[in-house]
């Protein structure tokens, strides 16, 4: 009888030892996997986050000793603590879930960030460049013009009597007209040119490596195309036609005492003054 009880106790003990060993091993594998995952994320992440992941990975890696020592102790002495093995697995699992959670949160923040950057660069209605991005592109092109010693031209385009279009057809049709006009202008530009909306019905075209003569030819081509288009609003029951006035300004890249920002502002002012001259001379024309 005593012998049977002793055998049963030994069997139960071996089972418990096996369970504890399995739990500690699972905990070890989970934590090693988490450390490996953190190193993998470090490789893919940009600088500020990279170091966070590296230190987390190193911490998890060093803590593997805490998972290995109970396994070694059981194998050496057959002493085990079932509760500790359960806790060990719970801690490793919690660490893995935590790392996955932080990774998902950071991916979300990154994609929201990308969206915000895209929104600040693109005009939400017409999908051409926003005013901020247009001015940024302009200062970059001014720098490039000085480096390459090539002329740079800009066009300021303003729709003539756009208020009348809004009043006659409604604001929604007015918005459709702005979108169609953007598409029409884009179709006439080269891939290196930039088109941006800098005001309600005011656009800028940045023409790199373009002198005043070429800029006038491009401006006239755009003006003519818009004048000849028979309808800018497909959803309107009456066709919407329009004309535009264009002011042209050209930068000649000779040594200047002015900063890039002042040159950009002055170029915009020249184009704006030219555009108002075109308006004052009767609209539907280009002016230098
Ligand atoms: N539909 C629509 N209209 C806009 C938008 N932004 C500005 N506008 C309108 O554009 C019109 C601009 O009017 P004005 O500045 O008087 O100029 P205009 O009527 O085009 O006349 P000129 O420029 O002198 O030829 C206003 O009626 C604004 O409400 C927009 O995003 N959508």
Question: What descriptive keywords fit this protein?
Answer:
288 residues; alpha+beta; Alpha-Beta Plaits; 2 domains; five-stranded mixed beta sheet; 9 helices; 5 strands; elongated; binds guanosine-5'-triphosphate; Diguanylate_Cyclase; Nucleotide_cyclase; GGDEF_dom; diguanylate cyclase activity; transmembrane helix
Give a description of the structure.
It is built from nine helices and five strands; from the N terminus they run H-H-H-H-H-E-H-H-E-E-H-E-H-E. It is α+β, with helices and mostly antiparallel strands. It folds into two domains: 2-121; 131-287, Reverse transcriptase/Diguanylate cyclase domain (Alpha-Beta Plaits). It has a five-stranded mixed beta sheet, with helices on both faces. Strand 4, helix 9 (260-280) and strand 5 (286-287) form a beta-alpha-beta unit. Helix 1 runs antiparallel to helix 2 (47-62), helix 1 runs antiparallel to helix 3 (64-77) and helix 6 (162-169) packs across helix 7 (171-187). It is elongated, with a radius of gyration of 35 Å. Bound molecules: guanosine-5'-triphosphate. Guanosine-5'-triphosphate binds next to strand 1, helix 6 and helix 7. It catalyses: 2 GTP = 3',3'-c-di-GMP + 2 diphosphate. One of its GO terms (biological process) is negative regulation of bacterial-type flagellum-dependent cell motility. This is diguanylate cyclase. It comes from Polynucleobacter tropicus.
């Amino acid at each position: 009888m005593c012998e049977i009880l002793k055998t049963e106790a030994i069997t139960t003990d071996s089972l418990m030892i096996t369970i504890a060993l399995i739990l500690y091993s699972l905990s070890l594998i989970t934590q090693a996997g988490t450390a490996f995952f953190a190193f993998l994320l470090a490789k893919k992440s940009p600088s500020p986050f990279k170091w966070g992941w590296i230190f987390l990975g190193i911490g998890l890696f060093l803590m593997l000793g805490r998972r290995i020592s109970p396994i070694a102790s059981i194998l050496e002495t057959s002493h085990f603590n079932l509760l500790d093995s359960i806790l060990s697995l719970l801690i490793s699992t919690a660490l893995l879930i935590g790392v996955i959670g932080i990774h998902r949160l950071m991916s979300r923040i990154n994609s929201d960030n990308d969206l915000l950057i895209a929104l600040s660069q693109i005009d939400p209605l017409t999908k051409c460049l926003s005013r901020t991005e247009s001015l940024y592109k302009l200062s970059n092109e001014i720098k490039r013009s000085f480096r390459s010693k090539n002329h740079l031209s800009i066009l300021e385009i303003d729709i003539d009597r756009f208020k009348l279009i809004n009043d006659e057809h409604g604001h929604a049709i007015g918005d459709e007209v702005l979108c169609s006009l953007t598409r029409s202008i884009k179709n006439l530009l080269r891939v290196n040119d930039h088109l941006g909306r800098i005001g309600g019905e005011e656009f800028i075209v940045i023409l790199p490596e373009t002198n005043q003569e070429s800029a006038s030819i491009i401006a006239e081509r755009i003006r003519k195309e818009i004048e000849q288009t028979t309808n800018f609003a497909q959803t309107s029951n009456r066709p919407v036609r329009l004309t535009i006035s264009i002011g042209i300004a050209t930068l000649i890249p000779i040594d200047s005492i002015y900063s890039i920002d002042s040159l950009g502002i002055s170029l915009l002012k020249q184009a704006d003054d030219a555009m108002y001259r075109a308006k004052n001379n009767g609209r539907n024309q280009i002016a230098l």
